[in-house]
Amino acid sequence: MNLAYRKPMSLSEFLDWEEGQELRFEFDGARPVAMVGGTRAHAFIQRNLAISVGGRLRGKPCQFAGSDLKVLVAGSIRYPDGLVTCTPAANDSTLVRDPVVVFEVLSNSTAGTDRITKNHEYAATPSIRRYVMLEQDRIAATVFARMGEDWVGHVLRADAVLEMPEIGLSIPLAELYEGLSFGEAEEG
Asked: What pLDDT score does 185 carry?
């Protein structure tokens, strides 16, 4: 284990350190956290997000980006599986400071962090209007949205439409799962 993993870092130390790394790391506010590889389901859902959300945003001021860009949220650095930003930035920028919608594809190893820790971080970031957590073992999502001063969550099932009025989109949830099949018991 590298010494940098053992001692706490500041955000600026992390950003400098990360530039020299071959692998990607998130920053939990004190230490780097290595990003792990994903499953076929994760990759297909992420691809479908890019096609469905990104395609619908073509020619509009807001743009979809995948997991290559990092976001600064509540003193942490995260690499969400997808995000929408509506602010122009330099082509060589790697950090998004004001995402409007954030997507995470849940996995067994990250679901706890995505549901609790990242949810609190995203709620504490004023630019984020909607946080979408997509299950990868069934067609379902948990969506948190800013409603005035509240951060309100609800669950979407297979036949639902993912409404994102802050970016002017409505997408059938099942569209994000194209190419994947699930047993009937898992969809309900």
From this structure: 46
Q: List the one residue out of 146, 14, 133 whose CA is nearest residue 75.
A: 14
How many percent of the chain have pLDDT more than 70? 93
Show the tokens assigned to 165: 């009025």
Q: 95 near 83, Cβ under 8 Å?
A: no
pLDDT digits (tens, 9 = 90+) for 102-112: 999 998 888 88
Query: Beta strands 150-156 and 63-65: pairing type?
Result: unpaired
Q: Are 173 and 163 in contact (CB under 8 A)?
A: no
Which two tokens mark 1?
A: 């284990």
Q: What's the CA gap between 115 and 171, in Å, rounded?
A: 22
Sheet holding 25-27, edge to edge: 32-34, 25-27, 76-78, 70-73, 95-96
